[in-house]
Write a structure and sequence with these properties.
Elements lengths: L2 H29 L24 E7 L3 E15 L2 E5 L4 E5 L9 E2 L4 E5 L2 H28 L4 H9 L16 H9 L2 H16 L2 E3 L4 E6 L6 E2 L4 E7 L2 E9 L11 E5 L6 E13 L5 E9 L8 E18 L8 E6 L2 E6 L1 E5 L3 E5 L6 E3 L12 E5 L1
Parallel strand pairs: 1-21
Antiparallel strand pairs: 1-20, 2-11, 2-15, 3-10, 4-6, 4-9, 5-8, 6-7, 8-10, 11-14, 12-13, 12-15, 13-14, 15-19, 16-17, 18-19
Helix pairs in contact: 2-3, 2-5
Length: about 375
């Protein structure tokens, strides 16, 4: 046998020996426990045990259904009970009244807020009165002859007449003949002409119709006002109204005279409102009804928004829940065997942060953590009850 064949035989035998040695070492390692250990809780088949299933942490509350009266919310804006626009009826230069004619100024009932220059009208009144006196001077002497019974009274009226003073009422007559005699002499016609001019003069003085505050001033004293021009706006102080909107189904729980407590958001101030009117018309778009409350308080101001509640319908076996607990407006999640299960409920009412529902059993744990329907069947663990 030549040398090349012997070398090939030896190489083959050496390779077989190396493979056999490697297999022996692997068997020795496995039998001594040197392999990787199975994870704790794993079965012999390599699957995880039920105790190691991942669970979602949730907040929950245990409910106890009871009899609950629904509290219906009311929100509205405060407006003056009386508010009057101030207009100029005649043309004339405006003159300052008892106080500055500016927004925020308070006036008492009857106090002069503003005047208008009426010097021309005053001269016209004096002229008309002079004509009236002249007419009386021509008529009264005839009364002495034709109707002596009323002569003295009419003579005294003529002698005491003063064109600078307000017009006084005419003396009385005793019968129709006397009245017709005076009418034929144009006594009554001229008297009413002067009276009409004096009535117009009184409108050049603009007085407060009630005690209140000037909330708007659109003209400054010294400016010439035109007939019909708006000069400002005055509102009664201390007495206000609040208009709120109520769902048509809940109007039946309100009645005139009912008193409701209102408050401002984030404020301890409260105000008592008495229901004075309920609108008979329902808004066709919103199906809401306007209701009006009267409030009296020196601490109120126009434009303030107030909130209140009143008692509505009473429900049996009801529960109040946070709004985030409701799913699709008709469901909640309850914890059953450590699993989230969807439960249908009947929503009876809503407020800003709560809902009133029925359809839950006493002792059920409702999940408060906001979820969607896809959460159904999810393993959960309660972190806050």
């Amino acid at each position: 046998m030549d040398k090349s064949k012997k070398r090939k035989i030896w190489v083959s035998l050496a390779g077989i020996g190396l493979v056999a040695a490697a297999l022996a070492l692997i068997g020795l390692f496995n039998s001594s426990g040197g392999g990787q250990k199975a994870p704790p809780g794993a079965s012999s088949s390599g699957k995880a045990s039920s105790d190691s299933v991942a669970r979602t942490a949730v907040r929950a509350t245990t409910v106890s259904p009871s009899e609950i009266t629904r509290q219906i919310p009311l929100t509205g804006r405060v407006v003056p009970e009386d508010r009057v626009d101030v207009y100029a009826e005649y043309a004339g230069r405006t003159i300052k009244g008892a106080k500055p004619f500016k927004a925020g100024t308070q006036f008492n009932a009857g106090q002069v807020m503003l005047r208008q220059d009426a010097s021309e009208l005053r001269q016209s009144i004096k002229s008309a009165k002079s004509q009236f006196v002249q007419l009386l001077s021509q008529t009264v002497p005839d009364l002495r002859i034709d109707y002596p019974a009323i002569y003295e009274e009419w003579k005294n009226y003529l002698l005491s007449f003063d064109v600078t003073q307000p017009l006084r009422e005419l003396p009385a007559v005793q019968n129709d003949q006397q009245r017709l005699f005076l009418t034929g002499r144009n006594i009554y016609s001229q008297f009413y002409t002067v009276q009409e001019l004096e009535s117009r003069l009184s409108k050049y003085v603009i007085r407060a119709p009630f005690s209140g505050t000037l909330t708007q001033a659109t003209i400054d004293p010294g400016t010439i006002a035109s007939p019909g021009q708006k000069l400002g706006e005055i509102s009664r102080t201390g007495t206000y109204e609040l208009e709120a909107s109520v769902d048509f189904d809940n109007v039946e729980f309100l009645s005139p005279g009912q008193v409701i407590t209102f408050h401002r958001t984030n404020s301890d101030l409260t105000f008592q409102g008495r229901l004075i009117r309920i609108n008979e018309t329902v808004d066709p778009e919103t199906q809401l009804v306007s209701v009006f409350f009267r409030l009296e308080s020196p601490r109120l101001r126009t434009g303030v928004y107030l909130q209140g509640t009143y008692a509505g319908r009473t429900y049996q076996q009801a529960v109040r829940l946070p709004r985030q607990a409701i799913v699709d407006d008709a469901y909640v999640f309850v914890v059953q065997d450590s699993t989230a299960r969807l439960r249908q409920v009947d929503v009876k009412g809503r407020s800003l942060d709560q809902v009133l529902v029925t359809g839950l059993d006493s002792g059920q744990r409702v999940i408060l953590t906001e979820q969607t329907k896809a959460f159904e069947g999810t393993p959960v663990s309660i972190v806050q009850d």
